[in-house]
Protein 1
Amino acid sequence: MDAHGGFWFGRPRSEFFASGDGKAWLDAQFEQVGWELEELLDRAAYFAPDAKRVLVGYPRLVPADTNKCLAPAPGQTELPLADIPQDALPVLDQIQKRLNDVTKKAATDADGGADFVDLYTHTGSNTACDAADRGIAGLLENSQIGGDGQWLPWYAHPNEKGRDIQAQHVADKAEEILNR
């Protein structure tokens, strides 16, 4: 159906990944990601047994209050998450939260365990929709990559503020690990 009509495959967007084929597909993807991350960490332990393994989660993209996503950030003309409908944003956030949980579980379940940096939890007030406080640039917001008026969009990657916030959390975890 119409991509803006609120339906995917004849069902409301919000239900597609919650049941049926969409849920089965998503569950399989998360299972694969978890297995691959555990395998990666196990291989790292095998080849570098004295290494301190750290797995870094993803920052939060969508705020709890999705109304924040209905206005462009200061100095921008596009909505932070472009044309993703507001009713789909909680679904996107739930998927991202689940990815973070799968990543954290892989760190815990890996042979010998690994440390985890939970950026999702620590970046809830710096999402793509947090105006001047955003740590994630908007999907179509121009980055600093390119030139001659041909700047590439950020595509919801960390901006300078987000880079610094995330780097601080990773540095804090590294310091904690080294001081054990």
Note: The chain has a mean pLDDT of 90.
Protein 2
Amino acid sequence: MLQKGKKIRAGRGSVHLCFARPLLYVYLLVLFVTLFPFFSCGGNKPISALKKQDLFDLQYGNFENELKLFNLRQSAPVNTRLIMHDGFFYLANGEAGKIMQLTSYGDLIGILYNEDKNPVPSFVDLSGNKTQSALEHQGTVSTQKSVVYPFNEIGPIAVDSQKRLYAADILPRDRYVYDDKTKTWLRAAVLRFNSDGSFIDYLGQEGPGGTPFPYIKNIYTTKQNEPVVVCLSENGFIVFWFSSDGYLRYKVPIAMQSLPGYNAFQADNVFISFDNVVPDYNEPVLYLKLDYFPAEIDASTRVQSGMSFDQSLIYPYNLETESYAEPIAVPDFEQTVTGGYTKEVFSMGYDFLGISESGWFFFITADAGGFSILILRENGQKIIRRHLEVDLEHTVYHHFSLSPSGIISALLAKEEAASVVWWRTDTLIDTIIR
């Protein structure tokens, strides 16, 4: 059980906790974006746009250098993710059962793929000497490598400084484990691959070959090449922090009742959204992001009429001391909407994108012309706000990621093709702090 930190009062009433944004919050954002063409908008200070660098495009199809995203118009969630590490891009295309490694110019240098869902890569000759099995590595070397692995349902991925790849996947059905306590099936594992694509093993809750995980929300790697697996549970989050050789160092269940200030809110009418958990890159510290929504009471009827966003806090939790540090206040995202003689200011929280190696916190939220980002230091004395221009009207899917060096990358999928872009926020930070 986590120790309780300092109580922070964010509003009034009984506590309600969830792990998704309140419907009212989403409604306000949708309303704002919908009405934007008919109103003039602006905050107290204009936010300058950060230059976007278009790197390369990926066509849709079944070939090795193409994406399979043909079910974008269906109700099923898109299962494709992008990360960048040391200038190389790793794209997990769950719909096709493959993971691609590409340069910043879009050149394919490696592919791990399920041969039942993909054709043999075109760069493989008839003798197959450029293809190897991840399970039966034979030391084949080529400028382009193609490795076969029977992926089932690829989830989040991560890469460490040794270019070892970590990929969440679903185990075969005969290896599911039923959890009597939670009444759920445990079926996720983290696959580990060497830089050449050869299969190392899979991680479970205890380490190599251990009990399957619950649903994996994300995977991270630290400066010490330690994988950190963040899972969702019936009560909140469970974080599994492993050593570089794959053995469990910390298992941290974070339940509703252990959230900082929980008891202080039980007598108050406050809705708390437990948004995310992100590990520090350098130290065994977790950062918990909580959003607070006090209830709005109608003055005439004295009945709750809705909820309004109040504040976001980041709680650092030290795994070695098992204690919380002082919370970090995250500034709000505010947008002023004017029409005629009326003016409305919408205040809402950012999504927690991650933390860089140098200790900068990154947050992001959609706005009328793309996305707004907030970058701040832990002490809150340095705050950077910038706008990322994205054509949301013609973008059918997007996925953002933050590299350890502090570069924001994105996969932007449109009807005709998908683009890989980045914003050099690392350069921006270096310029400001000099």
Note: The two ends are 43 Å apart (CA to CA).
Protein 3
Amino acid sequence: MLRVISPDSLMPLATLDGIAGLPAGTVWIDMHSPTKDEEAFVERATGIQIPTREEMEEIEASSRLYTENGAIYMTATLATGIITEHPETQPVSFILTDRHLITLRYADVASFDRFAGHAERQPALCDTPGMALMHLVDAVVDRLADGFEHIGRDVDAISRAAFRRARGARQQRVSNLALQALLIRLGSAQDALSKARDSAASLNRALGYLMFAAPKDANLGPHIKTQMRDLASLTDTAGYIGNNLTFLLDAALGLISIEQNAVLKIFSVGAIVFMPPTLIAGIYGMNFERLPELQWTLGYPMALALMLMSAVLPYLFFRWRGWL
């Protein structure tokens, strides 16, 4: 799908039939999962080469950031689906010329649609290709900041679930299912954080290249510095959240160890508690002809009382020492 934006209008090009070229005054050309015909149309209309999907997925900097025939090519990895709990990373290419801004993507990016809506209401956002790029990057960074805020709230909720119990209530054991769910939530938060941090780093590299590659008369320097400062603050936030996740993961593993030790302690105490009664029962179960208590009327009740006392006394002793 092609979507073209000028200072006067926003128009989706649903079909290329009967269209000889781009509408007059086109500033931004948004290519969303374009077909071969659409790519060929844009290449004819702008005179630049559109990178392939395979080229966009290259990870070396020379394949992502370069200038060719007067056009600045920048491919950044953008995180999507962080707020909707389905985080993914997708390569997105920004191609800046003196006449057009061309974006190429193969996934839905909410910030692009948000900026398109703003540009429709405020045409001045797309006065020039350079300013359209700056405002588009600003929308991407804002959406990325929302993603970091979402991850931070999720991490805080995990912390409350793990440690902030009701005061005055007796400490209850954490079930295995609850611990498993805690680890799953930690893994999901870490996955979203890593993708968001990768997106911030990728955008920062692209802006750093644009700082030196953009024409001086475009006056993009102050805008680029502002975006880079915002990305630096997001990177600091990512480090803070990452430290919290590491602590929560260590704490969760500690809780699992405590629960395992509690289960083993129950078996150990049970074995110790029933050891003296077993000893007494073993003594009176020996097959000797003469045991003084065998002929005594109260011998059987006495043996039962001894076994009960030998089980209760260790239990009370353990409770007194605070081992249970």
Note: The chain is about 60% helix and 15% strand.
